[in-house]
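User: Predict Protein THEM6's structure from this.
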Amino acid sequence: MFCAILVLVALAYILWDVNYFLRIAFTILTGRLFQKKCGINDTTTIYGFCTTQDVDIFLKHMNNARYVRELDFARFHFYDRTGIYDNIKAANGHALQGASSIRYRRTIPIFSFYKVETKLVYWEDKTLFIEQKFITTNDGFVRAIVLSRQNLLDVDVERLFKGIPGADSKPECPEEIRHWLQSIEISSARLRKKD
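Assistant:
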């Protein structure tokens, strides 16, 4: 029996990224148990620790790919705490990463605590724009800042924000997002020419 369980666990780790799913479940569960719901205009925070599994080949600081992975956990946490996730699920919709831009300012050293702050900064009918910051807890320094565009499928913003505080007033589009969207459009036009 014990050997069968070990084989199943080994197969699960071979076939799936088990730690990824465990971390999502842990992040959402702790949010539900220890944090209150929040509104669209609120910032949510999750915490992390840079371990030996997160570092690059030089074993000194967080690998660039780990930042992107942490963004998923923070985004799922934000969706759950605001109620966006429930509304997406009720509509049988999806929110998919459409684009992201990361600006690395300083590394996160190995064995450092950090937090990821997530905030919705702008939206359109079928798109959410999220800003996320990696901040080391010992000095409060913003180590990286990320903009991401979440494309909504089978659900629009009106339905997505139903019953969520703060959705009644849409913010102005920040200047950096306007420029970023122009850059994305230029890239898309260039790729369409090649097709």
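The mean pLDDT is 93.
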